[in-house]
Amino acid sequence: MTKKTATRYICSNCGAVQSSWSGKCPQCGEWNTLEEHMTASAIAGSVAAGRVLSPQSVSKSAATDKERLKTGIIEIDDVLGGGIVAGSVNLLAGQPGIGKSTLLLQLAYALAGRPNTPVLYVSGEESAHQVALRAKRLGVNESELQLATSTSADDIGATIAAGGYRLVIVDSIQAVSCAAISSAAGSVSQITGSSQLLTLAAKQTNTAIILVGHVTKEGSIAGPKILEHAVDVVLQLEGDRYGGFKVLRAIKNRFGPTSEAGIFEMVGEGLKPVANPSAALLAERRVSDGSIVLATLEGTRPLLVEVQALVNRTSYGYPKRAASGFDLNRLNLLIAMLERRTKLRLGEHDIYINIVGGIQIREPAADLAVCLAIGSAARGLQLKQNAVVFGEVGLSGEVRHVPHADKRLAEAKKLGFDGAIGPRQKSGRKLPGSHEVADVRGALNQFLEKD
Question: Quick check: 130 pLDDT over 80?
Fold first, then answer.
C-alpha cells in the first residue's frame, strides 16, 4: 500500500493539482506557478504531534526586558526609537556605494569600545584585509571589535547561538547561504532560509543582529518580501552616493516610530551626523527666479531646502518634464492643475524641478513651493517676501493645511527668514510672521507680482 504524500502542489493559474513540483504546469503551461500546500491529514498530524504552550502574563514578560543598546550616534538612536533592542533583527538596505558598510563599521566601533559590549562584524562580501583597510581610513582601531569573514549562514548562526556577543553585523544577507539548501547564494530560498536561521539564533540568545540588504535597480529591497516581514526593523539609507546628504529612515520599526530620520554627510572619516542641515543646504543659495525655500519635515525635525525650477520653451512637439528629488507623477499633476486653475500656459514649455542637496521630498507640504517655483521661473519674477513656503495643493487649486506649522516657522526665523507663506491654520489662530493663502492663484498674484 502506497503512503500518501503530506504535501501537494497546486497551480496558482489554473488550479491543477500535482504530486511533485516542476517548473512548468503540465495543464496550462505557465512557469513557476506551482505552490506547495499541506494536505489536511498532514496538518492534523502536525497538531497532534505539537505540545501545549505555557503562556505567561505580559507584566512578567516586561519585567525581564533588557535595556536598549545605545550606539552613541544620536541620529541612529533617534531613528531606532532609543537604541538597538536586545534580540532584535534589523535590516539595513541602500544603493551600492551609499555608505551602508561604512556606517555599520562606525556603529560597531562606537559600541565595541564600551565595557561588556562585545561586537562581531561578519563580512561575506569583502576579505578581512579589505575591511581592515576601510577601518584604518575611518580611524577604527578598537581592539575590542572582532572581525570575521564567512559566507556560511550555519557558521554564523552557530557563532550567534554561542551567546558571546551583544551585537552581530552580517554584511550582507545576499552573500551567505545555508548548507541544507542547494540553490546559489542570493536566491529566494537561500535568503529566506539564512534569515530564518540567523533570526532563530538571535532570539534564543537575546543577541541583536544587523543584516545588510541589497536593493533592486528600482530602489526596493532585493529578495523575497518575507525578508522584510520576518525582521523587526527595516532601515533605508537614501541619497546621492556621489555627494550630498544621506538620509537614514525607518520603514518598519516594531520598537519605535517610523517618522524619524537621521541626516548624515560623507566626509573623509566616514558618515558624519549633520547638526544643522538647513544652514548647510542653503549655504550656497543664489536668490533668483525659480528659487523657493521649502520648509519640510524629516520625521519630527524641520528642514529648509531649496526648490529650483527651470521653465523653457520646448524645441520638440512634446514638452519634457523632469524632477530630481521630487515625484514626477506628482509634478505632472501640479502642472495640470496650474494650467487649469491659473493663467500660466505651460503646455509648450519644458519644466525641470530640482531639490538641492540630494534630498528626496515625499511630503505633500512641498506642493505649494513647487507651484511657486514654477510660476516664478515661468514669469521671470522673484519671491517678494524673504519667506519659506509650505502647503499641500489640491486639484481645485486650494492650499490645504499641513501639520507642525509652528516648527517650520521657528526653523525659518532661526535662519534669518522673515516669515512663511502657507495655508490657514485649522485652529483659526494666525502664527506671527505667517502669510496665509487660500489658493495657488492668489499666492502667485500676491507674492510674485512686480514691485
Answer: yes
